[in-house]
Amino acid sequence: MLSLFAVLAVCACSTTSNRLSMRELAVAPPSLMTAQKNPRTLYLVLDPAKVPAEMTVLVGGKDQGGRLTDVAQFVARDLKKAFEAFFAKVQVVAPEQVGTEPAVIADVKLDRIEVLVAGSRPDGILTVYAGASAVTWGFAIRPSEAHEYLYSFAGESVGSTGETPELVFRSMFEAAIAQLLKGYTDQRIDQKLLALPAPPPDSAATTRL
Q1: Does some domain include residue 42?
Q2: From CA 56, how far away is CA 64, in angstroms rounded?
Q3: 82 phi and psi, to 5 degrees?
Q4: H-helix or E-strand containing 83?
Q5: CB within 8 A of 1, min separation 6: which ones?
Q6: What is the torsional sign of CA 60, 66, 67, 68?
Q7: Is 181:82 a contact under the CB 8 Å cutoff?
Q8: Which residues pair with 132 in a beta bridge?
Q9: Does residue 164 form part of some domain?
């Protein structure tokens, strides 16, 4: 297995790839059991201006060429799976595609990803580096009929220290989701959203085009 920085950010003479796709990361959100799912649709808004398709991976605060691609998978796959424990229906949509029926809307923003170097060890003629990755990001959720967010999260989430990019980045996104859900449940946001009027049972979700 190539070392973390042999994949993401080594010197210019390297011939190895410096790109890693989110599709290669088997992110496993916490598996939560809930007694009742919210009948409202949760719209996870995927805005390319807030969640770019590709992000620079900084190392020690510098751009050394590392890139994380297919970043939208964090929303479309991982956050969607996490919130399916709370909502009967979760849809990932563009900003202009949010439905007009009573629903719940969540916005996501990814600001920065950085590798924090933790140490190194010799491995033959190579030096193997270990590090942890950190993502600075935000999440906010509100009922569709409200302009103010009911719950918002913003901060830095740090994953486990390791030598392989798969572990380092997978654990970072898992830590991010766990941190988000802790605040969501500790503040009983799920219960507050459940207390909202349910959409009429015969109302079909329409989408703003």
Answers
A1: yes
A2: 9
A3: -65, -40
A4: helix 80-83
A5: 163, 164
A6: negative
A7: yes
A8: 116
A9: no
C-beta atoms surrounding 102 within 10 Å: 17
pLDDT tens digits, one per residue of 140-175:
999 999 999 999 999 999 999 887 889 999 999 999
Give the predicted TM-score (pTM) of the model.
0.85
Pair of tokens at residue 88: 């009967």
- Would residue 163 count as lying in a domain? no
Query: Which tokens is 39 given?
Result: 């009948």
Q: Alpha-carbon distance 87 to 170, whole Å?
A: 24
Domain housing 83: 38-110+135-155+171-194
**Inside any domain, residue 63:** yes
Say whether pLDDT at 3 is over 50: no
Number of domains in the chain: 1
Give the alpha-carbon dihedral of 49, 52, 53, 58, to 10 degrees.
160
The answer to whether the Cα torsion of 171, 175, 176, 178 is positive or negative is: positive
**DSSP 8-class letter at 162:** B
71 CB-near residues (< 8 Å, 6+ apart): 22, 51, 52, 53, 54, 55, 110
Tokens, residue 205:
């979700």
- For the record, the structure tokens of 144 come out as 């569709």
Q: E-strand spans in 52-103? A: 54-59, 62-69, 87-93
Q: 128: pLDDT confidence band, cut at 50, 70 and 90?
A: low
